Amino acid sequence: MLMTVSSPSDADVAMERYSAGDDAAFVAVYDAVAPQLHAYLLRRTRNSARADDLLQQTMLHIHRARGSFIPGARVMPWAFTIARRLFVDALRRERWEVPYGVEGSEPEERAAPGASADDIVQVREVVTRIDRVLAGLPSSQREAFELIKYRGLSLADAARALGTTVAAVKQRVHRAYEAVCFALGDPTGAAWRVAD
Predict the structure, then answer these.
(1) Is the pLDDT of residue 89 over 70?
(2) Residue 115: which pLDDT band, with cuts at 50, 70 and 90?
(3) pLDDT for res 196
(4) Is 2 a domain residue?
(5) Cα 179 vs. chain centroid, distance in angstroms?
(6) Within its chain, how far is the Cα of 178 from the centroid?
(7) What is the span of the domain harbouring residue 47?
(8) Under 8 Å CB-to-CB from 90, ≥6 apart: which residues?
(9) What's the pLDDT at 4?
(10) What angle do CA 187, 192, 196 make, to 5 degrees?
(11) First vs last C-alpha separation in the chain
């Protein structure tokens, strides 16, 4: 089997420099990872202040653990793993009740530019159904689905972030996708693509 190796991203290169002692590279690392981590944490907590706090904790942990970053590794899966663990620890500690929703769930954000009022209403209905389905899924399926569909991670990167295998991530995402399609009354997935 032929495997392709992706070239390191600017964030990966910056993290390597930062882990080697180049303090100035932290700005590039922060600029690359913070927006994605904040969106992930905001989706999980549904509270901007908590997401901001967890983002700062994540970045502090990245700073403290920079010496353990493996050259050649990808920074995003590592950063997502840190953020996820901090979120789970905080959840256990504070017993948060975390509502779950679809990023960009405001219909104006999900509809195409120039969409009519009817289109926005339709998107709102689809997003509401997707929100309900995702909220009812086991957290393992929901997190895998989120990392693949909303964060754009590869299967391998999502598996590293979740501390599991690629096969397990595939299975979790497939089950979540099936649940969403079933809820939309479209086992082929055509309706889901409207909400993508």
Answers:
(1) yes
(2) low
(3) 36
(4) no
(5) 19
(6) 19
(7) 10-94
(8) 50, 54, 96
(9) 42
(10) 160
(11) 32
103 domain-assigned = no
Q: Please tell me the total count of domains within the chain.
A: 2
Tens digit of pLDDT for each residue in 123-139? Answer: 677 777 777 888 888 88
What would the two tokens of residue 187 be? 């086992």
Residue 20 backbone phi and psi in degrees, to 5: -85, 0
CATH number of 183's domain? 1.10.10.10
Task: Give residue 129's pLDDT.
Answer: 78
- The answer to whether the beta carbons of residues 177 and 196 sit under 8 Å apart is no
Q: Could you tell me which residue, 10 or 190, shows the higher pLDDT? A: 10
